[in-house]
Specification:
Blueprint: E1 6-15, E2 18-23, E3 28-33, E4 45-47, E5 55-60, E6 66-71, E7 77-84, E8 87-95, E9 99-105, H1 113-126, E10 130-135, H2 142-155, E11 158-161, H3 170-177, E12 180-185, H4 192-199, H5 203-215, E13 226-228, E14 233-237, H6 259-262, H7 282-288, H8 294-305, H9 309-314
Parallel strand pairs: 3-6, 4-8, 9-10, 9-12, 10-11, 12-14
Antiparallel strand pairs: 1-2, 1-5, 2-3, 5-6, 7-8, 13-14
Length: about 325
């Protein structure tokens, strides 16, 4: 017979209907949800009721397992959404993140800044703080690294320049992770595991082991897991985020999620300006003056209009 006292904890991972919950007393227990929590919403938009990062209340059972009785309200969540036969389904990739750390390498692989811009838009839209980690600085030098990522600092984003080889920025990144719930996002090969090992020995290895175990399974489901940090807080590697889509952003709203564009929109001559060929466009004027980086303007155009090579050639910024 179980103990009726409810203990609060955080969901660390979920697999095959079972949840690993990190309790307030630092125990990690396997839990199953109370029956009423298994049902997803039946309206047009459904979402995960319990997700990694959620704070839950657990009733301990006599066999050492637990039952999730309640899920506490989320502050925010990183969500991937896709339509299916029953309407729209919102997959909660990480609940209650304090920040998303976008890890991109300065080289090997070359930084895909349009992908970085896409992630930034998604985090802006979902109201989640962002930290950019420009990794592998040792391959190009600090001056070149700042040339690659410095424009994001000018926009107002926090950027940490790191190298697991030289130790550059490792302490700074650790300070940013301390006592926070962080999700790490980035392309493969950017050195996330090595960077995490530099922050906390064995952490990157643990994440790599989870990934390898997953890849050997009979299906392609990715197991995501939170790991506790010695300095306080939790971190999760979030593989597969490249599949995120701008699922609920209307094209005319996109400029609101580029901070340097958003603050100038009111100065455009037309309230519905697309910033392409309208007269009196404050955005094109700012691009021509170098106040908005052309690369960011091009990212905006490609996100809004898709294949815009011909369109870009026709745009007159003067």
């Amino acid at each position: 017979m179980g103990n009726n006292e409810l203990i609060q904890g955080r969901v660390m991972s979920l697999q095959s209907g079972f949840y690993h919950v990190y309790l307030e007393d630092s125990r990690e227990v396997v839990c199953h949800p109370r029956g009423r929590l298994k049902q997803r919403r039946r309206d047009a938009i459904r979402e995960d009721i319990i997700a990694m990062g959620d704070m839950v209340q657990v009733a301990m059972q006599s066999d050492g397992t637990g039952t999730i009785e309640n899920v506490l309200p989320r502050k925010q969540a990183l969500i991937r959404s896709a339509p299916d036969a029953r309407g729209e389904y919102k997959q909660v990739l990480l609940a209650n993140p304090d920040q998303i750390v976008l890890v991109f390498a300065c080289a090997q692989p070359e930084p895909h800044l349009r992908m970085l811009d896409r992630f930034l838009v998604i985090c802006e839209q979902q109201g989640i703080d962002v930290l950019i980690a420009a990794n592998k600085v040792d391959l190009v030098g600090e001056e070149a690294a700042h040339a690659l990522f410095g424009m994001y600092e000018q926009i107002g984003y926090k950027v940490v320049y790191t190298s697991s080889i030289t130790g550059l920025g490792v302490d700074t990144l650790r300070d940013h992770l301390q006592d926070r719930l962080s999700g790490l996002v980035g392309p493969s090969g950017v050195g996330k595991s090595s960077l995490l090992n530099a922050i906390q020995p064995s952490l990157g290895l643990a994440i790599r082991n989870v990934s390898e175990t997953t890849s050997k399974g009979m299906h392609t489901t990715v197991v995501r897991r939170l790991f506790p940090l010695d300095v306080g807080g939790f971190v999760a590697d979030l593989p597969g985020i490249r599949m995120l889509s701008l699922w609920d952003i209307e094209p005319e709203e996109l400029d609101g999620y580029f901070p340097e564009i958003s603050k100038r929109v009111a100065d455009c001559q037309f309230s519905d300006c697309s910033h392409v060929n309208e007269p009196g466009c404050a955005i094109k004027a700012a691009v021509s003056k170098g106040e908005i980086h052309y690369e960011r303007y091009e990212s905006y155009l490609r996100m809004r209009f898709g294949d815009v090579d011909d369109l870009i050639n026709e745009i007159n910024l003067t």
